[in-house]
Amino acid sequence: MAHPAFRAAAVRVRVPATSANLGPGFDALGLALGLYDDVVVRVAESGLHIDIAGEGADTLPRDERHLLVRSLRTAFEALGGQPRGLEVVCANRIPHGRGLGSSSAAICAGLMAARAVTSGGESRLDDTGLMELATEIEGHPDNVAACLLGGFTLAWGESGAVRAIRMEPSEQVVPVVFVPSRPVLTATARGLLPRTVPHGDAALNAGRAALLVEALTRRPDLLLPATEDRLHQDYRAPAMSESMDLVQRLRADGVPAVISGAGPTVLALVTDEAADTTARLAGEGWTANRLPLDLAGASVLPLTGAAEADGPGAVPAAGASSAAAGSGR
Length: 329
What we know:
With 329 residues, this protein is α+β, with helices and mostly antiparallel strands. 32% of the residues lie in helices and 26% in strands. It starts with 10 loop residues before the first strand and ends with a strand.
C-alpha cells in the first residue's frame, strides 16, 4: 500500500459511552448512551502534542502511552503509514474505570479520527476493518460495537472475524446510570470470573439473553426477567459489593438493574415516567443520571464547539451527591 496523504484540516470525532453485557449478554450485547467524548486531531509538521480537558485531565499520559494515541498509530499503520506529527485535543465526559466504555470510546475515536484525516481513508480502511481493529485493541467486541454503530448491538466472532449487528432500542427505554466514586479496573473484574460455570446457569443466561433482544427492542415490560444474570455479576461482587447491593435493592423493587460492563456503575433500564423516581433510589455516594439512548454511534462532526469540556451529555464528577440530572446530546 502506498504511503497515504493527509488532510491539512483538523477533524472532530464524537464517541458515545456504552454499557456492555446488560445482564445476561456477557461479551456480546451492548448499548450506546447519550454521553460523549469529543476528540479533535490535526496532522502537524512534527512531534506529538496532546491537550486533555474533563475526565482524566490530571491522570492520563500526554505521550505515546495514551490509549487514543496508540489507537491512532494502529489505524495509521493499517492505512499505510504514520504522519510526521500530531496535535490531539480531548474533551472527555465519560467517567473512567466505571464500566461506561471509556476505553472503547478512546479506541474508536482514535481509529475514526485517523481514517478521517487520511485522504481516501474509507477506501483504505472500511467499517469492517475498523471494527476488527477496535476489537483487537480492546480485546472483546461488545463495547466497541455499540460505540461504533450506536443503538443496541450484538457482536460475535465467526471464522476468526468480528461480526456485529445493530438493533433499534425501544423509544420507551430510558437508561439511568448510578456512578460510584471509586473505579474498578476491568482486569480486576475479569480476574474474578471462574473458568467454568454450572450448565443450568449457562442455559438460563442463554434464554435470558435471547429474551433481552425482544425486551429491549419491542417489549420493555419484560426487561426485569430479561436482565437476570448468573454468569458474571455475582462472581464480581467482591470487587464491587456496594454496586451489587444496589442492583439487588433495585431489582427487589421491580427495577431492571444490572452492573454496567465490568462495573462498578449500575445501569437501570426504565420508562420515562419512572426515570426521575428511579434516579433518587440510590442514596448518598452515587451520582445518578438519566441519559438518552445514542442512535448514531461514533461520528465525524463539524469543528464548531469541539473544545468545550462541558455541555450536552455532561455528567457531574463521580462522587457527587445523588441527583436526577437530565442530559442530552
